[in-house]
Amino acid sequence: MHRRNIMTDSANRRLLLRVEHFPLKNPFVISRGAKTEAVTVSATISQGGAIGRGECTPYARYGESIESVVAAIESVRAAIEAGADRVALQRLLPAGAARNALDCALWDLEAKICGVPAWQIAGLHRLSPCVTAFTLSVGTPEEMARAAHAAADRPVLKIKLAGEGDAARLAAVRAAAPDSELIVDANEAWREETLAENFAACAAAGVALVEQPLPAHADSALEGRRWPVAVCADESVHDRNGLAALRGRYDLVNIKLDKTGGLTEALALADEAERLGFGLFVGCMVASSLAMAPALLLASRARFVDLDGPLLLAQDRPHGLRYEVSTVFPPESALWG
User: Fold this and answer.
1) Alpha-carbon gap, residue 119 to 263, rounded angstroms
2) What architecture is the 2-121 domain classified under in CATH?
3) What is the C-alpha to C-alpha distance for residues 336 and 294, in angstroms, rounded to an integer?
4) Would the pLDDT of 32 be above 80?
5) Which of 1, 129, 159, 191 lies 20 to 30 Å from 92 when distance is taken between CA atoms?
């Protein structure tokens, strides 16, 4: 009750938005296109000398743009500055990037005001380091083999695929990184008629998981069929709505805060997914450490963690997460939480 009283004493609460650009070390290429920078929207909420921050990445696949996300946040500015909390925010905005930035900023703000780490507020016993996958962009088999060889010391590699030619890509990556655990992300690029041969290629390469093989609108073709590799939903799952319908199609669900609309719904989605028998995968968009930090609160529950966004940037923001090869450590309070 004491924390709630502190949070609702919102005199002089202010919201600041920034659009930020983070150049990438190398072009990031998936089946839908390529980019050379991460463009994010950050929200800073100040109250009584404390500051909370959150970051989101608008995603065109979900009908989002920088402009639409900024407009969505601006539409609830008055409510946020009047003291809306995380519970109220769930009603003010739908799941998506805009709500994510605000929700994570409110988590951070509460932690700063109360002097209690966000992981404790979330009911966790501790926040430990975890191993993240490292993502390889899609390219020719030769290009991907070179990238895999350079990253062969990483324990988990996430391989972006594109449909045609994926068997050759997988074979090339496996030869170049024989000791790494492989997971693959088709980004909806496969088709029903190619499922059997693509799954067979994954099995031959020792792949542990296939992420979103079919377009979200066509994933009913997965239902009731047994595959040699575990299957994870990404574009097919955003929040708890519709989760039950994915049983029989997927083994795991990829929880990304930009899809769920923040850590609040992400934690609820994780609970419901586990209740329904799904395994958990914690993922991210390409963004800075500020976007990764809240997702670390889910990492201990996940079979796979893919929070490598800062490793793909030419330069992270100040006080960024510490990575030792692929081990990522909990954030400093100066960053988040």
Assistant:
1) 11
2) 2-Layer Sandwich (3.30)
3) 8
4) no
5) 1
pTM over 0.85: yes
Tell me the C-alpha distance between 299 and 307, whole Å: 9
For residues 123 and 80, give the distance between their C-alpha atoms in angstroms, rounded to a whole number. Answer: 24
Task: Check if the beta carbon of residue 291 is closer than 8 Å to that of residue 266.
Answer: no
Which range, of 89-93, 113-117, 161-165, 259-263, averages the lowest pLDDT? 161-165
CATH number (3.30.413.10, 3.40.50.720, 3.20.20.120, 3.40.50.700) of 130-328 reads 3.20.20.120
What does the block give as tokens for 256? 């990304």
Tell me phi and psi for residue 48, to 5 degrees: 55, 35
| Whole-angstrom distance, CA of residue 15 vs CA of residue 51 | 10
Predicted local confidence at residue 29, as pLDDT: 83
For residues 73 and 64, what is the distance between their CA atoms, to the nearest angstrom?
12
The DSSP bridge pattern shows strands 327-328 and 323-324 to be antiparallel
Q: Is 127 helix (H, G, I), strand (E, B) or coil?
A: coil
The pLDDT, as a whole number, for residue 10 is: 63
CA-based max dimension of the chain: 61
Cβ distance 181 to 156 under 8 Å? yes
- Confidence category of residue 34, pLDDT binned at 50, 70, 90: confident
Q: Copy the structure tokens of residue 327.
A: 């081990």
> What does the block give as tokens for 17?
């938005």
Residue 9 reports pLDDT greater than 80 = no
State the pLDDT confidence band at 7, using cuts at 50, 70 and 90: low
Phi, psi of 44 (to 5 degrees): -120, 125
User: pLDDT tens, 191-219?
Assistant: 999 999 999 999 999 999 999 999 999 99
Which residues belong to the active site? 160, 256
Domain boundaries in the chain?
2-121, 130-328
